[in-house]
Structure formats: C-alpha cells, structure tokens
Amino acid sequence: MDTLPLPAIAVAGRTPNLLKSETLVLALVASALFWLLAWYWDTALSAIAIWRKSDTFAHGWLIAPISGWLIWTRRHVLATLELRPNFLALPVLALVGFGWLLARLAEVGVAQQFTLVLMIPLMVWAILGNQIVRALAFPLFFLLFAVPFGDFLEPPLMEHSANFVIAALRLTGIPVYREGLYFMIPTGSWSVVEACSGLRYLIASVTLGLLYAYLTYRSWSRRALFIAAAFIVPIVANWLRAYMIVMIGHLSGMKYAVGVDHLLYGWVFFGVVMLLLFWIGSFWREDVEGSEAPHTDASRPRRVEPSLGALAAATVAAAAMVAAWPLAAARIDEIGAYGTPVLNTPPAAGQWRPVDGRLSNWTPRFVNLQPHIAQAYSDGTRGVGLLVVYYRYQRPYVQVVSRTNTLVSGHDREWRSVGESGRTLVAGRDELQTIEASLRSRAAQLLVWRWNWIDGQYVTSPYWTKLLQAKSKLLGRGDDGAIVMVYALAQDDPEVAERTLQDFVRDMLPGITSSLEYARRTRPAS
Questions:
Q1: Model confidence over 369-380: pLDDT tens digits?
Q2: SS3 for 459?
C-alpha cells in the first residue's frame, strides 16, 4: 500500500495544532502589551518627550528595537520552552501597579516610567510562565534603560569634576580661586555646568557596556568587571577631559577649547576612550567558544501544546490588573475641585513690619511661578525678604519638587550659588530643618533659607515631600504644597545674617503657617 506524504505534519517538529496555538499565544501577548500601553500612554509619552529634547537620554529611541532584536535571536530557544501561565506574578503586578499610582499622585515622572516598564516582564511572566521570562530576562530588563533616569547624579558629578580639575590645576602649579562650581585662573574664569558633569557620557557608557558584556561574555564575573569598568572609566575620563579643556584654554590664551570645539573635543575624547575600553575588553571575549548553540530543527524537542484556556485567563487577569490603577488615579483626581488659592501676606509679628520695595533684585528661577508672596520686612534696622510660592494641582514642571525650580540658573550672568548645606533651626518649641544657600553677585551677597510645606508639614527632603504629597492626595486631602524662602543680605557679616534670619523665623513662622493653612482650607466647593 502506498504511503501518502504528510507535508502538514512535522514542520520543524511541530504539528499544525501547535503552530496555530503559537499564533494565538503571540496574539494574546501582543494584545496584552498594546492594552498596557493604551492605559499608560501618557506615561510613555512623558519618556518620549524627554528623549526628543535631551541629548543625554536620546539613546532611549534605540532600547526597544535592541530588546526586540535580542528576543528575536533567542527564538530557537523559546520554541522549545513550556508555556505555562504563572498566576503568582499577578500579586507582584498589582504591587508594581500600586507603585505607579503612588508615583502618579506624587507626580514623580521617572517612577511612573519605571513601573510602566516593569509591568512588561511581569505581564509576560503571568501569561507565558517561568521558563519564557527566565530566557528573556536580559532583553526585558534592558527595557529599563529606556527610562530617562540619572539626573540626580548631575550635582555630585559636577562637584567631583570641579574638585579634580582644581586639584590638578594646583598640582600643575596654576593658582586657582574657587567659589562653589566657579573658579578663576590667571588667564580666565571657568564654571562647571550641567554639560560638564559627564552624565551623558556615563549613561551612554553604562548602556553600551551592559549590552556589550551580555553579548561578549558568558561568565558573570567577567560581565560584572566589564560593567564596573564601563561605570568608572567615563567618570575618570570626564575629569581628565575637563582638566585638559581648561589647560588648552589656559595655554592658548583662551583661544581654543572655549566655544563649540569645547563640546566637540569632549565627544571625540569620549569616543576614543570607549573604543579603547571595548578593544581591551575584547581580549577576554567568550561569545565564540562555549556560546549557546540554538537547537536545530531536527534536534529541537517538541513542545507540548499549551492550555489556551489558562493563557486566556492569565491574560484577562493581567489586563484587569493593569487597568485598575489608571482608573483609580482618575477617580482620585475627581475628588474636590481645583481653583486659585487665596494666599495672604503674613501680618506683622514681633518687631517685624512689612515694608515697600525689595531687599534685592534676586529672584529664584522657576519656570512656572505660581501664586506667591514676595514681601520685604524690617524691624527698623534689619531687613529680610520672604518669598512663598504656592502650588495646587501639581503636575510636571509645576510642582514643589522640580528640577526647574532653582535658586540660580546655571546660565545666570549676575547671580551664582557658592554653596548649600542643611541646618537645624529652633522655631518656638520645635526644630525646623532648612536648606541654607549662599548666593553672590558683583554687588551683593545673600543668605537664603528654604524649606517645603506639604500636607501641613515643613520638610526639606524631596523624597519625603513626594511621599507626603501622595499620601495627602490618596486620602482625599488634595496636593497643596508650597516652597518657603527667607533671605537677608550677608556681605558684611554672614553670622549677622544668620541671626537676622533666625529672629525673623522665630517671630514670623506662625503667621506664615497660618497663611498657608488658610490657603489650603479655602478650596472652592465641588
């Protein structure tokens, strides 16, 4: 008896039913991820907006394509793994979703973006199970580098760069006068600004280094060593770059390395350093010998057909879980109405009386200056300036804690910050934490104390401020907050300015607090 050919069976070792199941599985996963992005599209757009306007985070455009390519390269391995939903991933997904809600209430964009990206592997874990998520651990983890994260490193990186440059200049025999991040040498003045921090070099190096270590090495020790080098080398290289730029400017009489060539030289130097790092790392590569060989069609074991009912149930449960938190956020936003707060100038207290005019021409650099109080006070011989900026319905760039809220812009040609520190004040029977800053212009020097007011409390920590904001909004009390600043002239004697501000805070703080509480209570009717 003749045997009929069976072309529909044993295609790459898989039956037609299994091929059909795989198509349905891919459709389920793709639908779940599109569902996730649909609910959190505003969060995704906030990251994309930063990629568009910031060269430091422009690499974000490449992360998803690279992750997709890494997943594609493991398709042969994935074809052999068991698809079994893991419902234990759902509580973890719920916890991360609640973290997104808190970040949304506190308006912490980077935390919203991180939690959104973390939901992607968690949904894959819940729908496809342990074996798949384990095999895709790195490509899924690599998606976290799409989050524009790391701005908080700029101040310490700038400080360390300035310390190294000044130490190297003095070691070279060049006299240096320093004020904060500004310094002068005989041939000219220099300042360490955001572009000099080396943050963009560091982020690019760590991103490339992590990818290179994954593709080139197999042992965890070599991967860890290379990633550590990718973190340390750009920091040290940036110090050397900054020092050499100053030396080129100094030796050329400020003719070279002071304009566009300043940045061009920096990127050329960074490129050379990274090429050397990868070249040296290539001597210990492990991506050829001992690399994972994909299963051939003949040797690949057959995968048991997955339970489509269980996969569908896991997909629906995960989809419901991720949708719950944006709905909760929308419901919380509807609680109470938002209107312009009524912010009254604190009345006279003790020996302090409101006076006309301004104590100084300095004003903080806030992108969106909200309802505020700007008032000078005097006790007859001493003067103090009070500035209170009030926020209601906080949102990106219009909130108490924001990188756009600075005392002095890095490009300010008149005022400069020469140092900040924390200090503890005594206000009545309570202690008050404040941040003290010294500002200087050609004609004046100011001592500024500032702190935040949120949920009825005075705090200085930006993290605690955000937690209190989320708590207040979660409990239906709104998100009202304020920044309070007091300042006095300090060019004659900084200690006199400190005593002046201490006396002012002791007498006037109750009135300031009453003004803030009144603004918080006078909310328009719903």
A1: 778 899 999 999
A2: strand
Domain assignments of the chain as residue spans, ordered by start: 16-149+304-334, 152-284, 353-521
CA 211-242-238 angle, to 5 degrees, is 15
Yes or no: is domain 353-521 CATH 3.30.70?
no
Q: How far apart are CA 341 and CA 393, in angstroms?
A: 10
The pLDDT of 130-155, averaged and rounded, is: 95
pLDDT in tens, 300-347: 554 566 788 899 999 999 999 999 999 999 999 887 556 788 899 999
Distance between CA atoms of residues 181 and 438, nearest Å = 13
Q: What pLDDT is stored for residue 202 in this prediction?
A: 94
Residue 488: CB atoms within 10 Å: 22
Going from the C-alpha of 491 to that of each of 227, 250, 412, 429, the distances in angstroms are 48, 31, 20, 31
Beta strand spans in 169-242 (E): 177-179, 182-185, 188-191
Predicted TM-score (pTM) of this structure: 0.87
